[in-house]
Amino acid sequence: MNWTIPNILTAIRLVAAPMVALMFLYFTRPYADWFALVLFVSAAFTDWLDGYLARSWRQETKLGAMLDPIADKAMVVIALMVIIGFSSWSGWLVLPATVILFREVFVSGLREFLGDTAGTLKVTKVAKWKTTLQMVAIAVLFSQGVFEHYFGRSIMGMDVSMVNAVLSGGEEDYLGLGWKLKGAQWAGQIGLILLWIAAGLTAITGVDYFRKAIPYLKDDK
Length: 221
Known about the structure:
The protein has a single domain, classed as Up-down Bundle (Four Helix Bundle (Hemerythrin (Met), subunit A)). The chain is 80% helix and 0% strand. It contains seven helices and no strands. Helix 1 packs antiparallel against helix 2, helix 2 (31-56) packs antiparallel against helix 3 (62-85) and helix 5 (125-154) packs antiparallel against helix 7. The two termini are 40 Å apart. The model has no long low-confidence stretch (mean pLDDT 86).
């Protein structure tokens, strides 16, 4: 195995994937949200960086080709599990996440079954776009948790009427309740929209891979 810098970056991203979940075991919120967000964004950046370096330095290897999709899938799957686990389990969030998780398991199973012929399922530009959108959506959804918990900490000790008065402009907003609440709302809406778009692209790529695999799934007569 050739441990080039691009391959080391990919391995770091693979290790970082479960660390996102561990942030919520060892830290309280919103610190866990912050650490998970920074860790996820940093790891997502290495997804672009290792590919760029591998191409620029002509260091594309079999090890990197094997590790890269595994690291991407691990990051997305674990991050989605964390987000759903700490959410209200809204169907609008669970459904696109289910589509993404199902496709990743399905395509991984196809690749395993095809074995040596799995090279027919090459990563397409649409597949790269869906991975990028997945990571951006997840990062935005992690930021929603940051906004929500700073808003929650700011209203501690306030009754509902006081909070409503501040948000409606009847009282001075010394603690920034308005922008914290809007940040949470916008992050949630934008993240959800991006996740649905990513889920659509994910489904399209899954169907495309299955169509390409059909000739290899027919029984010999």
